[in-house]
Amino acid sequence: MTLALETTDLKVRLRLAEDWFTVCDLSALLPGRGVAALLPDGRQAAVFADRTGRLYAIDNRDPFTGAAVLSRGLTGTHRGRPFVASPLLKQRFDLASGQCLDDETVRVTAYEVKAA
Q1: Which of 68, 100, 66 has the alpha carbon at shortest distance from 84?
Q2: Of 27, 81, 83, 100, whose CA is between 20 and 30 Å from 51?
């Protein structure tokens, strides 16, 4: 038997300046797994959903290496703060704020995100 993925009409949208930009179907997000999305200006966002269904989006570029890999990082929580750890050097980035949890001088862009 083959199981079909659950489909929904909901789209994941990021706020870019004054507009909302659609990046993917909500059904494309699995808890603990990131999705990379190409933005209109050529940058990339890493989009995540947690087990409660809350959505997060941060810049996909690891500021320590310059590689666009944060969407492939491992997710977890530290003191109640959801984070993604870069798959390269393992620095952790707060998914809500973009703040690096291992170096307070480093931050990636965090985007407002919604499903609509």
Answers
A1: 100
A2: 100
Cβ pair 75, 82 in contact under 8 A: yes
Q: Which two tokens stand for residue 16?
A: 């870019």
Tell me the per-residue pLDDT of 22-35, one tens digit each, with 9 for 90 and over: 999 999 999 989 99
Which 8-state DSSP code applies to residue 15? E
Cβ-defined contacts of 32-36 (< 8 Å, 24+): 32/75, 33/75, 34/70, 34/71, 34/72, 34/73, 34/75, 34/84, 35/71, 36/60, 36/68, 36/71, 36/72
Q: Is the Cβ–Cβ distance between 43 and 59 less than 8 Å?
A: yes
Task: Write out the E strands in 1-116.
Answer: 11-16, 19-25, 35-38, 44-49, 55-59, 74-78, 81-85, 92-94, 110-111, 113-115
pLDDT in tens, 66-94: 999 999 999 999 999 999 999 999 999 99
CA dist., res. 68 & res. 45, Å (int): 9
